[in-house]
Amino acid sequence: MSNVKVCSLGSGSKGNATLIQFDQSIILVDSGFSSKELESRLTTLELRPADINAILVTHEHSDHFNGVPVFSNKFNIPVWMSPGTSLHPRADKIRSLNLINIHDSFELAGIQILPVAVPHDSREACQFVFHNDNYRIGILTDLGHVTQHVISCFAECDALLLEFNHDITMLMQGNYPASLKARVGGNLGHLNNQQALNFLHAINKSRLKLLAAMHLSEENNCPELVKNIIQQAELEKTTRVILADQQYGFEWVRIE
């Protein structure tokens, strides 16, 4: 039995944090939650901060970055991010800060990591594919559109955590000011449901064991719309589908 697992500690505009485990190594991707809140959410999984080997940061927006400096320093956990992300003024507070080239693969705690540059309204955003000889887990959120580079990097995943941020009609008819609608729905914003579906049609889904819908807007999307559109993705019958939410994320899922 494999010991390759993934879980979400919460996903949405109020805070994001994801755990990736390969064997005994655990990597935390982002933390938009305060250090205290993150500790509380780890406790529900019977995890301690000391169980985390490293923290990766996708970009500097507060719902991904907010809790990282305090949590990292409090528990002496090293942090990796792009040079652009490190320009955030609070990045200077991180005592164990390491920079990555988002165009080169690297290894952390025995896990192979492929950074993937994505179009988003931040300084140097990236997402990640984690892999060993047998399994590939992809995290793909916070991008305004799907590039060919993104498709090629995420084309062969066993588990995929994919953004379904908004329904375009709900966004356009909703209460956001025009400037925010333009930002969220633009080429440097967030994936809408149809874009996520188009991406799924563009990749090889034959080995996909888990699809997790991530970063759902609480105002401009709803779970039923996401479930309905995923039904159009022609997934294998063996593919497990999960919708992550803001409060609870989703519990550990073993990939095998």
TrEMBL record:
Q: Please report a single Pfam family linked to this protein.
A: Lactamase_B_2
**Which positions carry the signal peptide feature in this UniProt record?**
none
Protein name per the record = MBL fold metallo-hydrolase
| Top-level taxon in the UniProt lineage | Bacteria
Please report the stretch or stretches of sequence annotated as the Metallo-beta-lactamase domain: 14-190
